[in-house]
Structures are given as C-alpha cells and as structure tokens.
Amino acid sequence: MDEVEVVVAHSERATLRVGEVFLKVDADQARIDVEVEAMSRAPVPTPKVLWRKPPVLAIAAVPGTVLGRLGEPSTASPAAWAAAGAAIRKLHEAPLPPWAGRRRRGPDELVAELDGECESLVTNGVLPADLVIRNRRVAEAALRSWTPAFTHGDLQVDHVFVHDDEVTGIIDWSEAGRGDALFDLATLTLGHPEHLDDVIAGYGVDVDLDVVRAWWSLRSLLGVRWLVEHGFDPFAPGCEVDVLKSRM
C-alpha cells in the first residue's frame, strides 16, 4: 500500500500523492475546469488526466525532477533552465485561450491592490516601511499595458520538471489564461536571479529585464500576507522577504 503524501494543503485546496498519482481536491470547480482545459491546449508537456470526480482531479506524475525550489539552490544545469525558457516561449506563442485568466488585472486594478497591500504590510508591522516603499517603487515598472499571451499564471520553479536538460512536464495550470508573459518569466526565476539569463537565452526573445525584476517585487509584496495567513513562511531564507531585501 503506497503512503499518502500531503504535497500542499490550505483552506482553498489540497494536493495529495499516492504512488504515481496526484489527487487535487478543490472546492472551486471553475479552477479545476481551467486546469483541465489549459493542459489540453498547452503545446508543452503536461500531466495526463486520469479521471475527474468533483471535487477531485486525478493526474499522473510527470517524469523527471523539479527545476528547483524557492529558498534552495537549484542543481539543474544552465541548459535545463534554458530549456524551460524555450518551453515558456512555445506556450506564450500558442493561440490565446478563450478565458481571460484568473490573475488578469489591468494596471489600475493592480495599483489599487498593491497600494492596499503595502499599506497593510506597514500598518500591521509585517515589514519595515523602507523595505515596502523601495519595492513599491521598483514594482512600478510592471504596472504598464501589455499584449496578452497564453500564460501559465503560477509558473513557480517547482512546477517545471526536467530530465537530461529537457522539460518533461509543467504542472498546476489552475491559474492559466490570457496574461502578461513577463509575469511567467518572473515567477519562474523568483528567488533564482542567477538563472534569469539562462531562461532568457532559451526564451530566444529580448525582454525588458526591468519589468521582470519589477514583477519579483510586485509578486512578493502581494504574496507575503496571503502566505502567512495560509501557513507558509515568506520569511524563510531565499523566499519572498529575502527577494524584497535583495531589491534594496
């Protein structure tokens, strides 16, 4: 009998692993709908859907190992990071999905959300004011108009699997939709700035690196409170607070 491993669990969703099968439990059926549809449309390796019985989605494990983990040095080669960049480029050039994307917000909406979050972080003593103010300024570069692309929407480094310097699978598509391509690149390299050049080399197109770095600050500022409230530690070495400090 395989043991049941809790991969992630919080009030919104949980993912369990039993052998080579992942069970995703999500009360938000729209999120599961997006995940299944996005995986069917994405021109990159994705997990095989085994069955679905709301509120559970069963998918097969993908081969390979994760590209890295936030807060830990990546053991993947520069070529593997470049392969991830090439896969992301293929995704971004694919036909747009018909839905807008759960994370799609215009610049005005982002400004309002960011300003509210910054005020909360300072008022409640979560982060020092100078750290928040500096990163709010850096984040400004990301608050611009952009051309929509087919984006993953939550392309964390441990959502990309590689083997022999090739991408073998990209998981967790519940936030996919039409979005800012540079947000994907920033999410992948968050906490791993030393691999940004490798990713861009594989991506094969010049991008505005100031915007990518601005997304590092913006995503971290928006994420700290949510992470704390859901039992994660953004203060762990190499994680979101350290990312903010690196911008100083």
Describe this structure in words.
This protein has 248 residues and is of the alpha+beta class. It has one domain (62-246): Aminoglycoside 3'-phosphotransferase, Chain: A, domain 2 (Alpha-Beta Complex). It is built from eight helices and ten strands. It has helices spanning 29-41, 78-92, 107-123, 129-139, 181-189, 196-203, 209-229, 240-246; strands spanning 4-9, 13-18, 21-26, 49-53, 56-60, 65-66, 149-151, 160-163, 166-170, 177-179. Strands 1-2-3-5-4 form a five-stranded antiparallel sheet. It starts with a strand and ends with a helix. The mean pLDDT is 94.
Oligomer: single chain
Give the strand tally.
10
| Total domain count | 1
The side-by-side strand order for the widest beta sheet comes to 1-2-3-5-4
Secondary-structure-based class equals alpha+beta
The CATH topology is: Aminoglycoside 3'-phosphotransferase, Chain: A, domain 2
Question: Which segments are poorly predicted (pLDDT under 50) over 5 or more consecutive residues?
Answer: none
Evaluate the radius of gyration.
Answer: 18 Å
SS element count, helices = 8
Q: Any idea what the shape is?
A: globular
Percentage of residues in DSSP E strands: 15-25%
- The second-level CATH architecture is Alpha-Beta Complex
Fraction in helix: 40-55%
**Series of secondary-structure elements, N-terminal to C-terminal:** EEEHEEEHHHEEEEHHHH
Largest sheet: 5 strands, antiparallel
| CATH superfamily label | Aminoglycoside phosphotransferase (APH), C-terminal lobe
Global mean pLDDT: 94
Q: According to CATH, what is the class?
A: Alpha Beta
| Distance from first to last alpha carbon | 50 Å
Domain Aminoglycoside phosphotransferase: 38-214
GO molecular function: transferase activity
InterPro entries: AGP_Transferase, Aminoglycoside_PTrfase, Kinase-like_dom_sf
Protein name: Aminoglycoside phosphotransferase
